[in-house]
């Protein structure tokens, strides 16, 4: 049974979307014609205009990747101090906070959305709080209305790590229009990509000059360097990939939507699996398909055994950022995040996944979990047996 179901080629958790070869090569011909490879080239500018339109943003700036975009967004904050964020995120969020000289204050997450728990933020605000960095985990929007309220009431900037949320809308509004700044990642494995890439959407026009300088060594004119900047510029090859991919994005999201609903249909009947529900007011991008298992053993067992079927899932996000060896935080303070992180598993999700593949993945998961339950029952029976043999 197992051998029959094994995929002939590995199915990975994500698969970068590549455009038609000729479309890309057609686009990069411009680079040879212009002899312009980086530093705000014509493709960069065209990509920026198209992205601004697609993301419905007031202002946008492009960067070499999402991480550096986030670091530079944080660098625009004038005074150092504390930043409130979540441990249930990718390493990048916390590293960006640390690398820009802020202290991280962790807030726990909501058990249903896995996003920062807005009910717990206010008790963490002190006179040293300089920003809130909230993450739209798996593309599910945070409670943007309540976060806006907190940011306004306390006068604290609100920065979104929207790495997962490209193309998402809430109540018909573009997600990047909430908060002060939003960072979208355009890494190869994301819903939309420019090989590597990051884009900041923001409202304050006066940030443009600063961001442009910061991503180009702090240079403000041919003879002035006003900031200690870095090199975070997007090059023309990245912009060309982004331009070509942007034409396909709506179609890709629709294909992902089909995959998502097929998973929902086949997995909702399997005991031991909890699915994440999408709110009705959200236009989603279906970037990930996370499931929650009953406990850590079950999750780890499934993750391991699926490999025998050439099926590669990902414990995403595990470990939590407040358990990383490079920091000395304590995850005891965020028990919901610990609970979720111990049970989460991201299943393969990309637009080219066929319905037959999704059905096969679900069948395999069902079989593996049935085996797990049998083994678990045997373990329990043996334990009871051992206990009853113990002398009283
Ligand atoms: C939540 C989150 N933040 C930040 C990043 C960093 O983005 P990039 O890979 O484009 O640097 C990622 C990337 O995977 C991410 O998942």
Automatic annotation (TrEMBL):
Gene3D superfamilies, A to Z: Type I PLP-dependent aspartate aminotransferase-like (Major domain)
GO biological processes: polysaccharide biosynthetic process
Residue numbers carrying N6-(pyridoxal phosphate)lysine: 190
Active site: 190 (proton acceptor)
GO molecular function, one term: transaminase activity
Keywords: Aminotransferase, Pyridoxal phosphate, Transferase
Annotated family: Belongs to the DegT/DnrJ/EryC1 family.
Protein name, entry field: Aminotransferase
């Amino acid at each position: 049974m197992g051998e029959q179901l094994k995929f002939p080629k590995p199915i990975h958790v994500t698969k970068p979307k590549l455009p038609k070869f000729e479309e890309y090569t057609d686009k990069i011909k411009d680079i040879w014609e212009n002899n312009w490879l980086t530093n705000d080239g014509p493709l960069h500018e065209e990509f920026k205009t198209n992205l601004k339109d697609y993301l419905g943003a007031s202002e946008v700036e492009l960067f070499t990747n999402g991480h550096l975009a986030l670091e530079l967004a944080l660098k625009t904050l004038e005074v150092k101090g504390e930043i409130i964020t979540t441990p249930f995120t990718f390493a990048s969020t916390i590293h960006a906070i640390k690398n820009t000289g802020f202290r991280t204050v962790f807030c726990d997450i909501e058990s249903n959305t896995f996003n920062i728990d807005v009910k717990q933020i206010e008790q963490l605000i002190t006179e040293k709080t300089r920003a809130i960095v909230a993450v739209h985990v798996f593309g599910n929007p945070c409670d943007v209305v309540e976060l806006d309220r907190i940011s306004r009431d306390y006068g604290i900037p609100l920065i979104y790590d929207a790495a997962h949320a490209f193309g998402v809308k809430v109540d018909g509004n573009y997600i990047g229009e909430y908060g002060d700044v939003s960072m979208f990642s355009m890494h190869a494995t994301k819903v939309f990509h420019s090989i590597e890439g990051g884009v900041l959407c923001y409202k304050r026009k006066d940030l443009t000059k600063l961001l442009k300088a910061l991503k180009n060594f702090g240079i403000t004119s041919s003879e002035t360097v006003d900031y200690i900047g870095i090199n975070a510029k997007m090059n023309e090859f990245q912009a060309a990939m982004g331009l070509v991919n942007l034409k396909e994005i709506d179609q890709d999201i629709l294909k992902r939507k089909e995959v998502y609903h097929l998973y929902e249909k086949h997995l909702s009947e399997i005991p031991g699996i909890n699915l994440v529900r999408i709110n009705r007011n959200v236009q989603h991008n279906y970037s990930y398909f996370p499931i929650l298992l009953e406990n850590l053993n079950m999750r780890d067992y499934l993750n391991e055994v699926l490999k025998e079927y050439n099926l590669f899932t990902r414990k995403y996000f595990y470990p939590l950022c407040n358990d990383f060896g490079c920091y000395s935080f304590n995850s005891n303070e965020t028990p919901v995040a610990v609970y979720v992180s111990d049970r989460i598993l991201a299943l393969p999700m990309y637009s080219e996944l066929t319905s037959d593949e999704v059905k096969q993945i679900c069948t395999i998961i069902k079989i593996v979990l049935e085996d797990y339950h049998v083994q678990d029952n045997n373990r329990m029976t043996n334990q009871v047996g051992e206990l009853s043999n113990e002398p009283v």
